[in-house]
Design goal:
By secondary structure, the protein is α+β, with helices and mostly antiparallel strands. It has one domain: 2-Layer Sandwich (60s Ribosomal Protein L30, Chain: A). Helices cover 54% and strands 14% of the residues. The protein is built from 10 helices and 5 strands. It has a 5-stranded mixed beta sheet with strand order 1-2-5-3-4. The termini are far apart. The relative contact order is 0.16.
Length: 241
C-alpha cells in the first residue's frame, strides 16, 4: 500500500468516527475507546476531506473537525449553509457578550468561557448561565434539524486525569440543562477533552482562561441533508430547463 492509499484509508476510518459522533442514534460511549488525538481528528471524505485537510493543518479543534467532517458540499451544502446562517444570526443576537458564535463551513461553532458558565473548579451552572442557555435552547429547538457536539475543555492546571473528568462533567452539565429545556438528548454527543485541545498557549493567565471553555458544534442531521439534496437537485433541474 503506497502513502496516498494509506492516507485515504486513514481518512475513511476517521470519517466513520465522524459519522458516529454526528448520528443522533449513536451512543457517546463509542468514543470512550478513542484516544484524544482520534477525538480531535474527525474529518470526512470527499469535499469534507479537502476542507478538513486545509482547516486541520491550522487547528486541532474538535468542533471544527466535527463540522468539516459533516459537510456534504455542492448545491446541497449551499442550502444547508443558508439554514445555518439564519440560526447563527439569532444566536449571535441572543448570546451577545456571552458566547462567540462562528459560522464554519456548513455548521456553527459556539464557544462559551467556563468562567461565564461555572465557578472556579466547579461544574455547577450559575443562574446567569442558566438564563443564557435557555435562550440558546429556544433557538436549538426552533432549528431542530441539527445534531450537536457539546465539548468540554480545561487548561493544563492540575493533573491530566482530573482535567479530563472536570471537562466531561462541565459538558454534561450544559447538555443536561439544554435537555431539561426541551433540546432532545438524542441530538447531542457529549465529550470531555480535558486539556488536550487548547486554543492558545497555557503559559499565561489569559491563555488558560481562554482554554477553559465549553464549545458546541452544530451540524445538519440526516433529515436536513436529505432535504438539502432534494432542494438542490430541484434547483439544478429548474435552471437547466
Amino acid at each position: 500500500m503506497n502513502t496516498t492509499q494509506s492516507s485515504i484509508k486513514k481518512i475513511v476510518t476517521l470519517s466513520v468516527c465522524g459519522a458516529m459522533l454526528l448520528s443522533a442514534t449513536t451512543s457517546c460511549n463509542s468514543f470512550k475507546k478513542l484516544t484524544n488525538e482520534q477525538k480531535g481528528a474527525i474529518i470526512g471524505v470527499g469535499a469534507g476531506a479537502a476542507a478538513g485537510a486545509a482547516i486541520g493543518s491550522k487547528s486541532k479543534n474538535p468542533a471544527v473537525y466535527a463540522i468539516v467532517g459533516s459537510a456534504v458540499g455542492g448545491v446541497a451544502g449551499v442550502f444547508i449553509g443558508k439554514y445555518m446562517d439564519k440560526q447563527a444570526a439569532k444566536m449571535k443576537k441572543d448570546m451577545e457578550g456571552v458566547a462567540e458564535v462562528e459560522r464554519v463551513g456548513e455548521g456553527i461553532k459556539l464557544t462559551m468561557k467556563s468562567g461565564i458558565l461555572f465557578g472556579v473548579d466547579s461544574y455547577s451552572l450559575n443562574q446567569m448561565s442558566k438564563d443564557n442557555l435557555e435562550k440558546l435552547a429556544q433557538t436549538l429547538k426552533e432549528y431542530e434539524d441539527t445534531n450537536i457536539l457539546v465539548a468540554g475543555h480545561t487548561d493544563n492546571t492540575g493533573s491530566e486525569d482530573y482535567n479530563m473528568k472536570l471537562s466531561e462533567k462541565r459538558a454534561d452539565a450544559v447538555a443536561d440543562l439544554l435537555n431539561s429545556m426541551g433540546v432532545k438528548r438524542s441530538r447531542m454527543s457529549v465529550i470531555g477533552y480535558g486539556e488536550s485541545a487548547p486554543v492558545v498557549d497555557n503559559t499565561s493567565d489569559a491563555g488558560r482562561d481562554k482554554n477553559r471553555r465549553v464549545e458546541l458544534a452544530i451540524v445538519a442531521n440526516e433529515d436536513l441533508k436529505k432535504d438539502a439534496a432534494k432542494n438542490g437537485s430541484n434547483a439544478v433541474a429548474t435552471n437547466n430547463k
